[in-house]
Amino acid sequence: MKSQVSKQISTGTVAAVLVLAGVLALMGQTASAQATVVSAAKQLANGRNIVGTWQVRVQLYDCATEAPIGPTFASLLTFNEGGTMTGSTSNPGFAVGQRGPDAGVWERNGRHTYNAKSIALLNYTTPPNLPLNPGFLAGTQTLTQKIRFDNPDEFTSDATTEFFDVDGNSYRKGCASAVAQRLGD
Predict the structure, then answer these.
(1) Considering the chain, what is the average pLDDT of its residues?
(2) DSSP label of 94
(3) Cβ neighbours of residue 112 under 8 Å, at least 6 residues apart?
(4) pLDDT tens-digit profile of 95-140?
(5) Do residues 33 and 61 share a domain?
(6) Are 146 and 50 in contact (CB under 8 A)?
(7) Which DSSP category does 100 fall into?
(8) Got the DSSP string for 145-181?
(9) What is the CATH number of the domain that holds 109?
(10) Would you place residue 185 in the very low, low, confident or very high pLDDT band (cuts 50, 70, 90)?
(11) Do 69 and 130 belong to one domain?
(12) Which residue has the higher pLDDT, 29 or 99?
């Protein structure tokens, strides 16, 4: 009898502990989610929050003369809570599969302004194919942006880009401007 009561108490105790652990875990997730929502709400209340996904129109230009180079093209950028970002581009200068996605970081620089820096792998070398493709070496592309908000759902960006071969040697620099719209519901 004593052993059967012991088993019932042990089984009941284990069940209670598991239920309590589950409730605490859910409360922790709820608190974490509430903290994230509160953080995002504070940023939105201040306006011009960069967190989210953006549809971007990019125009390359000559850094010295500011003359446009080629047609505009589309990119997508996603800025995450905590200062990380990802992106992709349809830049017609790159061959299919030549350029990987962007991975990078961002930080708030001042009222309605941010800095972002990302890097993308260039998977293989292509020879020049003018006017759109000046030729690229396998290696990396680094993009450095200064972002300014015009309103909560739109920003403009001025960027510099630098290309490096697989040994880390810089071989080309460029400039671009962009206009971005927040991807909405």
Answers:
(1) 82
(2) S
(3) 47, 48, 148, 149
(4) 999 999 999 999 999 999 999 999 999 999 999 988 888 999 999 9
(5) no
(6) no
(7) -
(8) EEEEEEETTEEEEEEEEEEEETTS-EEEEEEEEEEEE
(9) 2.40.128
(10) low
(11) yes
(12) 99
Give the pair of three-digit tokens for residue 28. Answer: 């922790």
| Tokens 């922790």 sit on residue | 28
Instruction: Summarize pLDDT for 65-82 with one digit per residue, the tens.
Output: 999 999 999 999 999 999
Q: How many domains does the chain have?
A: 2
Same domain, 21 and 104: no
**Residue 105 three-state SS:** strand
Q: Do 162 and 90 fall within a single domain?
A: yes
Q: Which contacts (CB < 8 Å, 24+ apart) does range 18-25 have?
A: none
Q: How confident is the model at residue 47 (pLDDT cuts 50, 70, 90)?
A: low
Give the up-direction half-sphere exposure of residue 95: CA atoms within 13 A in the CB hemisphere. 15
Check if the beta carbon of residue 91 is closer than 8 Å to that of residue 83.
Answer: no
Contact assessment for residue 155 and residue 149, using Cβ atoms and an 8 Å cutoff: yes
The CA distance from 93 to 98, in Å, is: 10
With CA atoms as reference, report the closest residue to 88 among 16, 49, 141: 141
Our CA angle for 178, 69, 60, nearest 5°, is: 25
Distance CA 185, CA 182 (A): 10
Q: Write out the residue range of the structural domain in which residue 132 sits.
A: 52-182
